[in-house]
Design brief:
Elements (H helix, E strand, L loop, with lengths): L2 E3 L5 E3 L1 E5 L2 H6 L11 E5 L14 E6 L5 E8 L13 E6 L2 H5 L7 E3 L1
Parallel strand pairs: 3-4
Antiparallel strand pairs: 1-2, 1-8, 4-7, 5-6, 5-7
Amino acid sequence: MKAVNRISGKTLADDVSIADNLLSRMKGLLGRSTLPSGEALWIKPCMGVHTFGMKFSIDVVFLDREKHVVELAKRLRPNRMSRIYSSASSVLELPAGTIDATHTVTGDTIEIV
């Protein structure tokens, strides 16, 4: 799957994995040593994330049901928690720096196909 910002036309990730059941959502990116450029994890449902036990920072895009960006967390470092956003229904975890590189902002629409 691919994640594209419909407003800017920029690709956030060419290789999107989905975590949509209890086990895959709990595991998330744990156990990985890095998240290479072009990869992402789409967690649904999800209103907040943590990076406890992770070895690298990530960017997090919080999406509502229509995949509008409701909030962003740039360079969330290991062993941290994001805020909980009740308007979010899923999150897209990306390599740190992706949000800035793609000029993604609150209100943008992300297409995941």
